[in-house]
Amino acid sequence: MIKALKSVPQLFAVRTNTYKNFRFLFYSFGFSFLLLLAFLTNAGVADGTVSRLYSLTIPLYYYLIFAFVSLLVLPCIWVKPLGALIVLPKIAFDIVLIGDYFLFGVYRFHVDMMFINMLIYDFKGIGISYGLVLLSLFVASLVAAINVWIYRKLDNWPRLPLVKVNLAIFLVFLAGQMVHVVGYDYREAKITKYTPYFPYYAPLTSYKLMTELKAKYPETFPTLAQTGSGAVEGILTGSEQGLLTYPKSPLSCAIGEGKKAPNILIFVAESWRQDVMDAEVTPNIYQFAQEGIEYTNHYSGGSVTVNGLFSLMYGLHPTYRDYMTSDPLKHQTLLTKTLAERGYDIDVYTSSNLDRFSLKAMFFGKISDDNYINPHGGALKDDDFKAVTELLVDLKKPSAKPWFKFVFLSSSHHNYQYPDEYELYTPVETNPEKFLFNKNMDPVPLFNKYRNSVHYIDGLFGRIWQVMARHQDIDNTLSIVTSDHGEEFNDNQLGFWGHGNNFTQPQIAVPMLMRLPRAEESAPKPSKISRLSGHIDVVPTIFQQALGCNNPISDYSVGENLLDLPEKRAGLITASYKDKAYLIDETVYATGLSVDSYSVFDLKNKNKNYDYSGLNELKQQESSLLKR
């Protein structure tokens, strides 16, 4: 027994294996670094010294992630015979890098767990031949041999002070990220253009830091009104080096002879779920719905604001957002760009900070402060009231030109705010963060608070519609009322609250109400449409119904006209901050770092039968506006 206990320490090599692990990571990453440099070739030639130096720091992102993960699993390799196991995840990483490089080069999307799932179970369906499988096995063997060779040769290479080396690597990487923070804020495409090309690359951005730097060092960091590089042409566009072809062809639009260009109103309520639109909670909006078309099977393109609004304003799946963000002014949505070209006045009224994620520039270009009403920083209910007050003043003014007004109110976002007189439902939760500590708490009081906040937004909409009826030509106005995404209150009984954490109905199904200009003889009668529709369908509808654009929708969108929805469609794509999901026939296929499939109505109702043909069709839509 004593002899056995004495032999235990000999089984462990904590210091030796730890040091060997990080030496192997450092030296073997030289090979990975070369693989990652290949991704830079897809992005084209660097535009200047700063762009080139920044691009060379991007591979360090993956090195540091690998180093961090290695720290977490170190105890697993402290046993002497298990030390060599560190080679296995490194081999897998390099193989995935090579596969992703070629996958992105052909199909313009990166490897995710859904693709790996399809690769395992339906490799013929995605066009992979046995010859390619054999080639892949050869490449994988070669990658494994290189990594094993490096591991075996470690003792022949210099012993480095790894703490200092890794600290230096981190500082270089951090300097590169600071370059991106500045470049992102100033819309410098020569910096931001690299992001879409690297798998799961999420560089730093900081609106708060840049605001502070501009205030403290105005000479170094000037406040430029929606500045854009303007100097870089052909990046992610239809040039030889670019990816994005948006639109595929110039738009050809002409309003019919004798017709007056209609006004356009888009009213968006934050976090408004589809089943909280009725005569009691939203009486004003409900009355509006009786005069127009209600889409009862409608989904946002996101379970978070940024992707929900992107799909609404672009008519594209949220997977295109990185391409647009790379140069937001250059890739401003065709919706507002086309409206401006046709003489529309464009005005925005919102309490939300759309400077985040460059949404302001992407949606509205170089809009002037006079046309961009954005009270924020105070209580949401107060900021919403201020924004609507400004809107009412503008609506009372006559306009000789057609107008486009975008209204986005936030009182219905957590923590759900409203004036006391709008407290229609009781009891209400006094601690809106209670669910953080009790996932299975009674949802009714918090849901009541939420419904009261929606009731308040409905009251603001009622005021808007009343003034429009008195002072504007509402019979020549195309009006849309909707939300950016929904809100869950543990509907699935799995402890999920809020939004952005799954893709079931409470989080992605939203109201979609549309009232067409009454001047149109062809305007349909009030009705309810149960065919599948999505935010991606709004832009094609506006282009065809309001502007008379006769391009094929596929020239600029992956959506459909809301007045001509197909009986059967491929499905929709929606996304959170970290994951995306394919919605096909009421089934969700969620993917990111893992794969999950379930009913859109019930997260607990899991799906085992994958529709690989449908998934492949939707994946093709993700690259339909990209050059191959």
Structural write-up:
With 628 residues, the chain is α/β, with parallel strands linked by helices. Helix content is 41%, strand content 11%. It is built from 19 helices and 17 strands. An eight-stranded mixed beta sheet has the order 5-4-6-1-7-10-2-11, sandwiched between helices. Strands 13-14-15-16-17 form a five-stranded antiparallel beta sheet. Strand 15 and strand 16 form a beta hairpin. Helix 2 runs parallel beside helix 4, helix 4 runs antiparallel to helix 6 and helix 15 packs parallel to helix 16. The termini are far apart. The N terminus is likely disordered.
List keywords for this structure.
8-stranded mixed β-sheet, alpha/beta, 628 residues, 5-stranded antiparallel β-sheet, 41% helix, 17 strands, single chain
Give the strand tally.
Answer: 17
Whole-number mean pLDDT: 88
Question: Major beta sheet, specifics?
Answer: 8 strands, mixed
How big is the Rg? 27 Å
Distance from first to last alpha carbon: 68 Å
Low-confidence stretches: 1-8, 226-241
Strand content: 5-15%
Report the structural category. Answer: alpha/beta
Spatial order of the strands in the main sheet? 5-4-6-1-7-10-2-11
Q: Indicate the overall shape.
A: globular
Total helical segments: 19
Residue share in helices? 40-55%
